[in-house]
Request: fold
Amino acid sequence: MPDDSIPSMGLGTWGRSGAEGLPAILAALEIGYRHIDTAQSYDTEANVGEAIRRSGLKREDVFITTKVARAKLAKRDFLPSIHRSLDTLKVDRIDMTLIHWPSADPSIRFEDYVEDLGEAKRLGLTRLIGVSNFPNALTGRALAVLGEGELVTNQVEMHPFLQNRKVLECCRKHGMRVTAYMPLAQGRVADDPVLKRIGEAHGALASQVSLAWLLALGAIVIPASSRQEHLRSNFAASKIALSSAEIAEIAALDRGERIIDPADAPDWD
Reply:
């Protein structure tokens, strides 16, 4: 069964580094966000830890996800990088740790860094583990190393214009949840006439409809914003209940429009 201890509404923190990034994370916690997504490569782990401390919330009340950088997947670097993340966050344990991207370096053995991810959990450095940007073939290989039930999520780009149905199906088959990054397609959902019309029927914005649709599919969403009105709007999307007909309309918007697609990306499904 998918892990239901992960808050479905999260905050993405890419771009929220430095002194100017801290207020957005603090504001999100004040609004009610209890899942904060960071990564070693974002340079936001320090801000996430500081925001939680300043918020006055108990550590156990905030779910922290971080991701091991591609540059840290080698055997000598993997576990030390997680210890550095713990030191930067100033926490004793991470709630969920993901491999950010599969390695594109043939000299770095896939099974080694997947085993190291499992070792991080065994050592108590992280409570849950998962992957990010993994096509289904690599998810299957990782599960063959770790065992069924060990991976709880695959974090991938997912929005109405890139619905990643094969990845969603694979995750469901293995009792995992999809975490949708870029769930608003870099703001492009705001101008879609179908999403706007559905939003009007609910007294909501097109962006909120996009998030509500993903939540209805069982996905975890991690929209990012620095503006309080957007943080509040995104958070409120969880209250929108879409009809089956509306969900079907949104399903028809899929056009395979991938925004994040680096040259060394894996072979997508």
Summary: Strands lie at 11-12, 35-37, 63-68, 94-99, 126-132, 151-157, 177-181, 220-221.
